[in-house]
């Protein structure tokens, strides 16, 4: 973690300090000091650093994470942060309408996924995690099952795009962003339909049925903030979002996010390197890659930007909205080329 992320304890309000002190009393830690790092608290104790995390809902999250970490460890995967129990052996502390839980603090730094060599290592780590998590008894877990849900998500997002267009057309006064966003909509909607068609003509439901039987557990937030490098070892943190889904949910989302980075820019060769790195540990079948393509090329970021503008009405100025839209659309032709090269890769995939 960088120093810029850290807020010194003396910059916390008295109310916040009292809250943390009250929560820490429930644990057996010999506390030396603490500081705030993003949305968590770094607790310095006589036995090393601890991460105290606050959540506003989901009392099963600490139980899920703790259970999964132990189950992964039993299967030889120890690259996660262990969970700590309170003095009374509870997995969380309730404070007013909030919940707190404590895990080991991995003293390292966030990985640099812009570096393809580091991204390869992290992709292999994801494959190792998936392999270890396969076959774990999920009856003890209270997690969302997202299997067979992708077509509904895609269709809902398509309907949202139609709604955004109606909202703009019904406006008497349109901003520059409104006109630009609507100007791109036909092209983007077409790509979304192509993506949905890929999904509908794939083995998605067959794969979902197999995953239902095996109860494959995804991280669902596998990105640089949740991958910590310590002494050349890499660790996965923050298991709050785990769910049951196809493994390509994690890998596809990772690749999609990276492709919008300046060091990737929808270069299929780099995506191929990551796919093959994953395959070295946990081989994907051709039909899994076909399903993953639908996830990667679906215009998720375009939909998300529209939702922020027309549903959540996020209070950004016009220049910021336009800047974000321009950044997305500069990759339009590159995405078309990426799609073509991915399909060629699939033809010869074994």
UniProtKB/TrEMBL annotation:
Gene Ontology CC entries for this record: endospore-forming forespore
Alphabetic keyword roster: Capsid protein, Virion
Xref: SUPFAM superfamilies: Protein kinase-like (PK-like)
Superkingdom classification of source: Bacteria
Name of the protein in its database record: CotS family spore coat protein
Organism: Clostridium muellerianum
Lineage, top ranks: Bacteria, Bacillati, Bacillota, Clostridia, Eubacteriales
């Amino acid at each position: 973690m960088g120093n810029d992320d850290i807020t010194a304890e003396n910059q916390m309000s008295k109310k916040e300090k009292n809250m943390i002190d009250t929560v820490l009393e429930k644990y057996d830690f010999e506390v030396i000091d603490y500081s705030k790092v993003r949305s968590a608290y770094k607790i310095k104790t006589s036995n090393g650093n601890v991460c105290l995390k606050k959540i506003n809902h989901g009392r099963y999250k600490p139980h899920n994470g703790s259970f999964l970490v132990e189950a992964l460890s039993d299967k030889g995967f120890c690259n996660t942060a262990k969970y700590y129990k309170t003095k009374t052996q509870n997995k969380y502390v309730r404070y007013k309408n909030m919940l707190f839980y404590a895990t080991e603090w991995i003293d390292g730094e966030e990985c640099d996924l812009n570096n393809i060599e580091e991204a390869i290592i992290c992709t292999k780590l994801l494959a190792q995690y998936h392999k270890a998590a396969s076959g774990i008894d999920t009856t003890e877990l209270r997690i969302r099952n997202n299997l067979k849900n992708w077509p509904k998500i895609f269709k809902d997002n398509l309907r949202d795009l139609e709604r955004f267009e109606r909202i703009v057309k019904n406006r008497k006064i349109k901003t520059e962003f409104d006109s630009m966003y609507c100007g791109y909509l036909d092209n983007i909607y077409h790509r979304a339909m192509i993506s949905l068609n890929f999904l509908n003509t794939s083995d998605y439901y067959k794969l979902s049925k197999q995953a239902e039987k095996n109860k494959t557990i995804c991280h669902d937030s596998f990105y640089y903030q949740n991958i910590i490098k310590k002494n050349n070892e890499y660790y996965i943190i923050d298991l709050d979002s785990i769910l049951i889904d196809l493994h390509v949910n994690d890998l596809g989302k990772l690749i999609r996010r990276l492709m919008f980075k300046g060091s990737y820019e929808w270069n299929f060769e780099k995506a191929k390197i990551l796919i093959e790195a994953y395959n070295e540990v946990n081989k994907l079948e051709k039909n899994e890659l076909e399903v993953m393509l639908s996830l990667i090329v679906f215009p998720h970021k375009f939909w998300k930007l529209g939702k922020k503008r027309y549903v959540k009405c996020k209070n950004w100025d016009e220049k910021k909205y336009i800047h974000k839209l321009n950044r997305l659309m500069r990759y339009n032709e590159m995405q078309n080329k990426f799609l073509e090269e991915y399909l060629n890769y699939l033809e010869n995939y074994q």
